[in-house]
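Journal club side-thread
Mid-discussion, someone asked how the predicted structure for our own chain would compare to the paper's figures. Pasting it here so we can look after the session.
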Amino acid sequence: METPTGTVYRFGPFEVDTASGELLKQGKRISLQEQPFRLLVILLEHSGEVVTRAEIQSRIWEENTFVDFDSSLRVAVGKLRIALGDDAANPRYVETIPKCGYRFLGPAIAAPPILGQAIQTADSVESPGSTETRASREAVAVRPRLRSKWAIAGAAVLLACLAVGAVLFFSSRKRILSEKDTVVLADFTNTTGDPVFDETLRQGTAVELEQSPFLNLISEGRIRQSLLLMGQPADARLSPEIARELCERTGSAAVLDGSIASLGTQYVLALRARSCATGDVLAEEQAQAARKEDVLNALSSIANKLRIRLGESLKTVQQHNAPLAEATTPSLEALKAYTAGLGIIFATGGADGAPFFKRAIEIDPKFAMAYSVLGRVYGDLGESELSAESSTRAYELRDRASDEERYWIDASYEKQVTGDLEKARQICNLWMQAYPRALAPHGFLSGNISLVRGDYAKGAEEAKTALGIDPDFVIGYGNLVVNDLALKRIDAAAEALRQASARKLEIPDFVIQRYMIAFLEGNQAAMEREAAEGRGDPAAKEWMANTEGFVLAYAGRLREARAMSRQAENLARQADRKETEALYLTDAAAREALFGNFPEAKQSATAALRLSRSRDVEYGAAVALAIAGDSPRSQSLADDLSTRFPKDTKVSFGFAPTLRALLALNHNAPTRAVEELQSALSYEDGVRSAGSEVLIGAGTLYAAYVRGQAYLAMHQGREAAQEFQKILDHRGIVLSDPIGALAHLQLGRAYALAGEKGKALAACNDFLILWKDANPDIPVLNQAKAEYAKLR
């Protein structure tokens, strides 16, 4: 039901006149734009009831896209709360109902339309100097409505003059910064004696300013690397002096520094922009907060005002200005824990930061970005189920995030939970349109989104774009290496690692990548050197053990490979990472099955499933069980994957077709196997996972391997040879996966079927040379020797 024209609502000190479109507080007009006002009217119409987002959209934004609607609605709610003096954390009037909509809390009295009420003349906006009274407004309201054409013309002239004046004012406003300028955010000077403000206010300011498509803050990674080059600790406090030197070193235009001080029981906050070149103050804003609980609101206010002072348009500030209480958390303590967690991520990696994000969530269970970052930490550790749990909660709370953070949350949700990488790609594209200098969407696109799709050229391009934005973006180098290796650009991959090293960037990924490059080049000395470094690094030790296990298995040294896998499993168990331990077990199970050790394969697969039923664990176990001949259990796992992950790109175009084809082979239906694999063609050279398998090749090109086996069963040797040659031609994708070695043997079998004896002997001989030091009791090796003898 829509409100009749002329209805007046009264609640608390407020009055809403739907005829004049005015919000009054104790008789004085409160400035409120059209969309927030219409939203208020809709909520008042249903006072005490939940108004869904869909209903709001149909009433106000029916022509907007979904993404624009979300952003516009958040801005409208924020402006409405500001006008009412409301608090999102402790609402008096407007309550957010997560994943649903909003509800007006206070009792609202609706008065009927006033007959004969005349249109009121323009009122002054409520201000401290306003002397207008309610009585004077009512006197004006009863005057006859002027319909004279002269009055209309005069009003038009007045509006035109106001419009011209506004244009002249905003066009004459000096732009202090340009969109190409970068800015360094310094730490706040805290003289209150309260440590809760230390580092916390800087992080809060960063959240506020990163909402801006105009301002371009220097990244934390680049700040840390620049500090090292300056001879400072990477986590040195950014005093105004150090920040200015850092500003000059990075070629930035300005330093933003802030301060907080006590004034009796109140707090005084200031935020200044200083020129890097001269140190002069370019712009400054101040605010007072009556209580500690009001500090974050005051910080939001001065940050938004400073954005305008520095040259950002009023339009974009209005579009992207979620208050900190809505964009992050209303709790200083939660924000402090979150800030500490981010600091650890930048310093040492994600694992050690997890407890701080958990603490932030304990303090504020609605802290959306804390959940999302925790989900990313779990994802990087290979704990996909924990990652999905946290990422889902972040997605449910994404109304409690800034516009840019919502893009992060949405993209992470599609990557970590639904697995819909096409939707994740679309979100990243929208993200880049809204924030052209944002780093994260390029990071996402250069990683899992492009890697799983097998779009390595796009991945390399996005990685280079990310490094162009921030040359100290460490993940960008890692993603560039993976993409370059897949594109057979080994020298380029090695050069990317050298560039990272020159900038003193080092993460566990890099030692694994250097080891794999040495493996591809056949450089045994370099492999041993990198393996020794990995074993000595607590953060890389477990990963290196599993990687060495793959390389040993690639050469048929199965006993040693088993020992290294057990070491990796034990390290994961000690760290209480059950899913990671299960993944190592499925890796071992798959190779045991490929080598013909079926009892061992079933045993490892069963052990893995006892630890975890995650997507990648179920797939790895299902592959091993299918090859080992346990079709019923493999079928059950395949069905479960398709049911649980209906939108997942990897499941739909990789896991499910490969498993169906393996099962068809078990039922002597090779033609059906080839048909099942048709849907995998566009994705089969994409990586299996975003965990360690990206770097060691586990699971990549299995669809081609199974298709080749199907053609062998159909006695189509030439077609089979093309599939196995595909694997041999893509060593930078397959890396040390056992199918890379077995493809030589399978190629020999394909050539033998095609009647090309010479090529068959050569291919089989290549396999036997590769496995010259292999354990003699491996079934597939004995089969190869027997077949080679017959060919000769």
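Post-session note: Confidence is low (pLDDT under 50) at residues 113-173, 690-696.
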